[in-house]
Amino acid sequence: MIQRLTDRIWLIEGGKGGRYPYAHSLYLRDGGGVLIDCGSDLQDIIRLKKEEGLKVIVMTHYHEDHFYFLSSFPDVEVWATDADAPALESFEVLLDRYGITGSEWDPFFRKLLSEKFSYRPRRIARRIVDRERIRFGRVEATAVIAPGHTPGHLCLHFPSEGILFLADYDLSDFGPWYGDKPGSIEAFRRSAKLLAGIDAPVNVVSHDAPVHRGDIRPKVSAYLSRIDRREEDLRNFLRQPRTRLEIIRRRIVYGEGHPGPWFDYGEWAILSKHLDGMVARGEAVHVGDRYAARA
Ligand SMILES: [Zn+2]
What we know:
This protein is an alpha+beta fold. It has helices at about 15-20, 40-50, 65, 85-90, 90-100, 105-115, 185-200, 215-235, 245-250, 260-280, and strands at about 1-5, 10, 25-30, 35, 55-60, 75-80, 125-130, 135, 140-145, 155-160, 165, 200-205, 210-215, 240-245, 285, 290-295.
């Protein structure tokens, strides 16, 4: 479904209300037609390409729910940030960014990303850097690189249209994702606060409710508080020493009833960041094969 945010900026709502494996896209009706992310709705994108044109696809970052339909458009130029481009250009770099290479989840994700999500390496024609001004016909955007989710996660600010696209700083009930190998809790917090401080009249995100109007600072605070909740739950669980497998099976991040390797990976990706921080701050210890909170 397409929603016209302004005359020149349209929103393509992702399947399943923009829940994984889909993500909302923006479409700029200028500069020959520009799509921001490619995991929303294949039929809508094909129709827009035919009726309005599609010259460039800008990727906010390299995650699979954002590149889902990218392989259907091999003739369209792809732009990405300097820091995230290598993962769109090489499958091995992508797997390494996820922290999957050589893990027990390696075969599962290799198959998932290459088959279901049709990952194909793409040459990145333009590499975007922080604060770069990008012109799409008459529309100008400022690139705001927001590390923490991925190292080069791109947000686009369109001052003349009053729109900020925050992509995966998505204000969802699930909370923040910082589980990639280069992901960082502290960088995520800093980026989310910086984005809220831009104070755009219309804030658009990649998942769930796409449009948030007005001051988003209270929503960002609630969103970031999920991080503290996860750490508190983990701290409580570590009152007794626990192995990695026990921590994964506890489903602190996703909750009970989410079996399988996809969730196993997600639990460890997120919780290992908390464990690293807790151990570094002396709040937990890692002895033998067990982690424990310090009293
Ligand atoms: Zn993402």
